[in-house]
Write a structure and sequence with these properties.
The chain has 70 residues and is mostly helical. The protein is built from 2 helices and 2 strands; from the N terminus they run E-E-H-H. It is elongated, with a radius of gyration of 19 Å.
Length: 70
Amino acid sequence: MIEEREGNIMELLIEDAEACQLAAELVELTGDSLRFAVITALREERDRALARRRRHERIMAITREIACAA
């Protein structure tokens, strides 16, 4: 759950045992703070999702080009 607090401060509350365990393991492995580990993991997953979307869009553009040429 994400809640907006006073000003621009937002709070992310994760009430899932597996998510908390994975975050704790990541912190232990990296030595980073929980905040940094979560931000890094989210940023990396976002980047992978964007790359998948771009790849899909390129494939669809090539498919349309081939279909129009036929």
